[in-house]
Amino acid sequence: MARENLAKMKCETCKTTNYFTSRNKKKLKEKLEMKKHCPKCKTHTSHKEVK
């Protein structure tokens, strides 16, 4: 996994960084947004990509 393709995923409710994922920057121009499980909130919440 190349470092340039890593993206941090931050929880929208508690603002903690929980996940790291890779993405193809040439194909996906907008930021990623996924529903993932947040261990701090203990629910499935929306996670958005941050720099």
Write the layout of secondary structure elements.
Elements: E1 6-11, E2 17-22, E3 33-38, E4 43-50
Antiparallel strand pairs: 1-2, 1-4, 3-4
Q: How would you characterize the overall build of this protein?
A:
It is a single chain. By secondary structure, the chain is an all-beta fold. It has one domain (3-50): Rubrerythrin, domain 2 (Single Sheet). The protein has strands at residues 6-11, 17-22, 33-38, 43-50. A hairpin with a 4-residue loop joins strand 3 and strand 4. It is elongated.
Work out the count of structural domains: 1
Strand content is over 45%
Strand order of the largest sheet: 2-1-4-3
Tell me the radius of gyration.
11 Å
For CATH, the homologous superfamily is named as Ribosomal protein L33
CA(first)-CA(last) distance = 17 Å
CATH second-level architecture: Single Sheet
The count of strands amounts to 4
Helical content (DSSP H or I, runs of 4+) = under 10%
Largest sheet: 4 strands, antiparallel
Throw out a few tags for this protein.
51 residues, mainly beta
Short structural summary:
The protein is mainly β and 51 residues long. It is 0% helix and 51% strand.
